């Protein structure tokens, strides 16, 4: 079992390499704008959950996720050539909705009226 620090370092390295592979080596026309947001490694470094943010309509997101899952073998091979690990992790792609959620929260906060602050504090308060 790898230490939590090693898992974190490997996950960051995997994220960087996967980002490069997805941007420069996958040329499927169904692929939308894909960003690898984070990677979670299993304790034994044999499995990796890849969280991706996909820009576009829901149909485009589903198509892009299917392309990534279909190309997982190719991506894993490329990853194995670029990163020196005892075993190249099995890749599992997941959609990351955190950017959409933060945008929704931002929009709600933007619409919420903020009462003006009074210039003089009340005495005794």
Could you walk me through the main structural features you see in this protein, from its secondary elements to its overall organization?
With 125 residues, the protein is an alpha+beta fold. It has a single domain, classed as K homology (KH) domain (GMP Synthetase, Chain A, domain 3), CATH 3.30.300.20. 48% of the residues lie in helices and 19% in strands. A 3-stranded mixed beta sheet has the order 1-2-3. Helix 1 packs across helix 3. It is flat and about 70 Å long.
Summarize it.
The chain is of the alpha+beta class and 125 residues long.
Q: Which CATH C-level class is it? A: Alpha Beta
Please state the second-level CATH architecture: 2-Layer Sandwich
Q: Could you say what the CATH topology is called?
A: GMP Synthetase, Chain A, domain 3
- Strands of the widest sheet, in order across it, are 1-2-3
- The CATH superfamily is K homology (KH) domain
Structural features:
single chain, 125 residues, alpha+beta, GMP Synthetase, Chain A, domain 3, 3-stranded mixed beta sheet, 4 helices, 3 strands, 48% helix, 19% strand, flat
């Amino acid at each position: 079992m790898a230490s939590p620090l090693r898992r974190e370092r490997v996950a960051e390295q995997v994220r960087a390499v996967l980002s490069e592979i997805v941007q420069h080596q996958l040329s499927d026309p169904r692929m939308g704008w894909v960003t690898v947001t984070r990677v979670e490694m299993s304790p034994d470094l044999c499995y990796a959950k890849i969280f991706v943010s996909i820009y576009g309509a829901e149909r485009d997101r589903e198509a892009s996720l299917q392309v990534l899952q279909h190309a997982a073998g190719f991506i894993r091979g490329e990853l194995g050539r670029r990163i020196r690990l005892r075993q190249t992790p099995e890749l599992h792609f997941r959609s990351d909705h955190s950017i959409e959620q933060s945008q929704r929260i931002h929009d709600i906060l933007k619409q919420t009226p903020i009462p003006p602050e009074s210039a003089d504090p009340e005495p005794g308060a």
